[in-house]
Write a structure and sequence with these properties.
heterodimer; A: 116 residues; mainly beta; six-stranded mixed β-sheet; four-stranded antiparallel β-sheet; 12 strands; 56% strand; globular; B: 113 residues; seven-stranded mixed β-sheet; 0% helix
């Protein structure tokens, strides 16, 4: 069974600093997608970034980038120039495939606090 | 374009009562999903529907039923609510197999006393 592990329940960082959130996953599939979602206090789930496993190049979206290590099954999120609005819970997710369709498997989340 | 909408936003039930959570999307997506989120846990999949007319169980389906009424709507029913079903419920949709991004609704906070 696929699993997603986020080993850091909470992290804190100051504005303008860089922070890295860790995620590891377990799968026997070769082609898959990985995602980072952000959940601010409003509770809305917001897609931050996604990575296709067949792509060797790490995905980037403005201040957000990933370090995807396929052999190690590691998918960390780096947030550069942290802002107060980055305060949220961050979830790593793996897209699993089955005959019935696709679905996301989520990690338990990392609560990130950005302070001034 | 409202995206994914859910009703109600909040609900309090007594043990044994039944209710239906409604979800609708206006993005013409094929796939729809129901997740629950408990404190200290990530989102866990309850049921999903890959396309109109099909549904399948996820990780935690016990105590729930679903209906994919049409392409837009996917409802989640609790027949006899239990305190263990106190949670925040999220509906999501995606246009799989074209992209795999899931778009989430705002969530429903359900409390069962």
């Amino acid at each position: 069974a696929q699993t997603v592990t986020q080993s850091q329940p909470e992290m804190s960082v100051q504005e303008a600093e860089t922070v890295t959130l860790s995620c590891t996953y377990d799968t026997s599939e070769n082609n898959y997608y990985l995602f980072w979602y952000k959940q601010p206090p409003s509770r809305q789930m917001i897609l931050v970034i996604r990575q296709e496993a067949y792509k060797q190049q790490n995905a980037t979206e403005n201040r957000f980038s990933v370090n995807f290590q396929k052999a190690a099954k590691s998918f960390s999120l780096k947030i550069s120039d942290s802002q107060l609005g980055d305060t949220a819970m961050y979830f790593c997710a793996f897209m699993k495939h089955s005959q019935a369709g696709t679905a996301l498997i989520f990690g338990k989340g990392t609560t990130l606090s950005v302070s001034s | 374009n409202a995206g994914v909408t859910q009703t109600p936003k909040f609900q309090v039930l007594k043990t044994g009562q039944s209710m239906t959570l409604q979800c609708a999307q206006d993005m013409n997506h094929n796939s729809m999903y129901w997740y629950r989120q408990d404190p200290g846990m990530g989102l866990r999949l309850i049921y999903y529907s890959a396309s109109e007319g099909t549904t399948d169980k996820g990780e935690v389906p016990n105590g729930y039923n679903v209906s994919r009424l049409n392409k837009r709507e996917f409802s989640l029913r609790l027949e006899s609510a239990a305190p263990s079903q106190t949670s925040v419920y999220f509906c999501a949709s995606s246009d799989h197999p074209f992209t795999y991004e899931q778009y989430f609704g705002p969530g429903t906070r359900l409390t069962v006393t």
